[in-house]
Amino acid sequence: MLILQTLQWGPQHGYAISQTIRAQSSEALKVETGSLYPALHRLERQRWVKADWRISETNQRAKYYRLTPTGKKQLLKERDRWDQLVAAIAGVLNPNPLKG
Amino acid sequence: MKLWDWFLRRRREDDLQDEIRAHLSMAVQDRIASGEDPAHAHRASLKEFGNVTLTREAAKRSWGGAWRDRVAEFAQDVRFSVRVLLRSPGYALVVIAVLALGIGANVSVFSLFNALALKPIPGVERSASLGVLVSRTGAGRILPLSHPDFRDMQRELRSFEQIAGTSMEALTIGYGLRAERQFVEIVTGNYFQVLGVRASLGRTLGPSDDVAPGKHPVVVISDDLWRREFGSNPGAIGQAIKVNGFPLTIVGVSEPGFRGTIPGLALDVFVPVMMAPQIRGVDLLAVRKAPMLWGIGHLRSGIAAADGEAGALWTRLATLHDMREVDQRAAVIPMWSSPFGAQTYMLPALALMGLMGVLLLLVVCANVSNLVLARGVTRRGEIAARIALGASRGRILRLLVAESLVLALPGAALGVGVARALGVLLRNNNVTIAGGPRPFIDASPDVTVAAFALALSCGAALVFGLVPALRSSRVNLAGIMKDDLSPRGGSRGRLRDALVVAQVAVSLLLLVGTALVVRSLRAAETSDTGFDSRNVASVSFDVKPDGYDEERGRAFYQRLLDTVRADPDVESAALASQLPLTLVEGASHALDIDGVPARRGEDRRAPANAISPDYLRMLRIPVLAGRDFSRADTPDVRQVAIVNETMARRYWTTPAQALGRRIRLDNGQWRFVVGVVRDIKYARVTEDPHPYVYLPLDQAYRSDLTLHVRGRRAAGLLVRAQNLVHAVDADLPILTAQMLSDQMAVALSIFTMVASILMAFGVIAIILTALGTYGLVSYAVSHSTHEIGIRLAIGAGRGEVLRRFLTRGLRLGVVGTIVGVVAAGAAARALSSLLYGVSATDAVSFSSAVAVVIAVVLGASLVPAWRASRTDPIAALRHR
């Protein structure tokens, strides 16, 4: 889901994805390359992302991953589920003070 | 496709490589940009990236195609197994050889079964599913249908796609001056269409050959006969051959490979049924009482439905034509149980051999299992290392099973070779029957047989590989890492013990079976056939095709007998229409007995033999009451007959009571019984006693006869007898010539065949058992070296050690023997149909089998036990 989220704003290559996740989570989350690439390839197999080779801003050939329409749908669905989960956990951790 | 897959995968791998490289170089650039020095930046990025190879592997796994990995993994296992096995070729060779024996024995039995039951008629598609239309009497006897009945059924029966009629008869075939006795198929016009057999030359018979009696003097011959007799000359079409002296024009040659519809026999001549009156000399085509044709054809429905329809149709037709004397009805039976052909007498024997084959395979599996187990112990280190490195139990199992398969497949290939060798053994026992058809069983391995061998070996591999593999994969890591090689826990030992017990039991079973059949063979060989076959030559001929009419024939017979009897080497001579012990029952005749009416549904029939006066005396068949035939029994005086003891006792209670009574054959003239003689074995050694009638040759003229000559010695008698026949008529073709004692050997050929196969199975089984016991005891010895050393060191005698290991082997042997005797006792009852002269619980067979097994077990344990007792205690103790 995190990968799909980072791709929401446009095509990215693997290195950029890992850097973005790291930066946006304020270094709290570090995606291991050992899981990043398998994950990317899995997403590609499920046709949620599409990959092609492009020249990067630093003038290097790199594989760019782009969100597909189904991928976008999947992202929304997972976000929904995540929000519900967060809300539920938050509910358990902070019981409504009004009731307490 | 495969290449494309491989190419695609290769490209993706390159892709991944590039991707990772790009990732790294960007990371390095980032770090340099933020001010790190290049070398440090490179190292740091690599460190941050982690294990490149692991990432690649993980990414690859995400590509899916798990089955492809499995295949690759399996291929890898196979390669590894081959390498490992090449390193211990002794072990591999022993396992492959043992497997080849077991598989070969089974394949050879199966290829016979395949030939007889699965494709009984060579050259015909789906021949195993052919249905056979017969008529069954109330007494359960199976007869052909009469020609008019067959036509009625053929017209109305819906459950057959089409139905052809056929019958087999031994006739004299003349090619120019030469003639031979052959079995000929007399068939309806649609015969070839129904079977889907085409002509390779000319045409087959067709419906146009089925129109008017006597108007179709044509014949189709087999490809084999065409090559044999006409040298593959296309000019054979249009030539004539004489069938029982009647010329028929060859119109076609059937496809190669087709040998008629009698399983196990090769037939070469196919005559339209419309010509039967001309060939047989009697017109039975319109007689509803004369059984003539078997129906054969592909079924539309199942056998049971077809049988039901045939029965119902018969009942309806029977009300229209009230002509049948005995209670009978039409029935449809499957090809494999049809009353003609080799399968009738071969299938029971085959079932037995198949059973023995399975047992033998069990011994083989137990043996190989034992070897694999023993090896599993020496490989515990390797397996423990694999498990320690993270291999799952399933993975180890797969590896071990792959290894079994690597052993099983060469075993299967070699097994087919063994089967071929055994096939030669079988064929040698296929002795030709005198005056009978050529045996023809195409038991050469085909695709079905190869598939069977493959399935068998894979199954065997799973059985012998999986059990030990399950055991090997459940290893105690800590124990092995501590280099503890002593067999831990009793369970492993118990499994091996059980395997040896099973082997002993199964070999005992096989040996008991072998002993029973061999003793049956001996009993049959020495059995009282009721006549004396020593020094008797038989020469068969047929004078009718040679131009003799009845009057000249009688004169010829008299001249022949006079000439032969005048020879100084000849003791006595006689003529008879039937030869004893031909395996094929002669034609039987409807029998009427004056004053003893047939019970309702009783099918009263008896075979008959037309004999010259000296016949009974010459074969030394004793006359129990009344007299032998004499020269006075001429056509003009009272018609007489001699019956056998069984017939006399069945209808008139005693031989003496039978004298003077009247009997009639095939609604012919009434004949007075003038003599009663002792029973002999007429067609088969193992047949049950049945009524039999002798007619005086002078009162029952036949053109086809066999001259029996008893000489003072056997040497040269056969040639002498033939020369004597030719001395009287130099042009008379001799159909067969054989010593009667050789005929006996043929009559015993089935016993001989079963006995020799069982003997081979039994020998293989006992060798394997010896190997298994030897292996077990020597294994136990080698793993107790330490213990033996201690025992010897503290004062145990060598004899004590010897006894200890000997008892171990013997205990298993005794347990196996007890199990085996119990199993054999149960199994032998199933054998009883194949036994002759011995009971299924024959003490001699059982005790000799037990003795052999115990002796072998004892011998096999003695060698390693003796070696154990020779252990040097100092060396044994220093070993650890």
Structural notes for this entry:
The complex is a heterodimer of chains A (100) and B (880). Chain A has helices spanning 2-6, 14-24, 33-45, 69-93, and strands at 12-13, 49-55, 61-67. Chain A is α+β, with helices and mostly antiparallel strands. Chain A is 54% helix and 16% strand. The radius of gyration of chain A is 17 Å and the shape is globular. A 3-stranded antiparallel sheet of chain A has the order 1-3-2. Chain B has 27 helices and 25 strands. In chain B, the strands form 4 sheets. Chain B has a 6-stranded mixed β-barrel. Chain B has a 6-stranded mixed barrel with strand order 17-18-23-20-22-21. Chain B has 4 domains: 2-64; 139-326, no CATH class; 345-526 and 749-878, no CATH class; 536-743, no CATH class. In chain B, a hairpin with a 2-residue loop joins strand 8 (240-243) and strand 9. By secondary structure, chain B is α+β, with helices and mostly antiparallel strands.
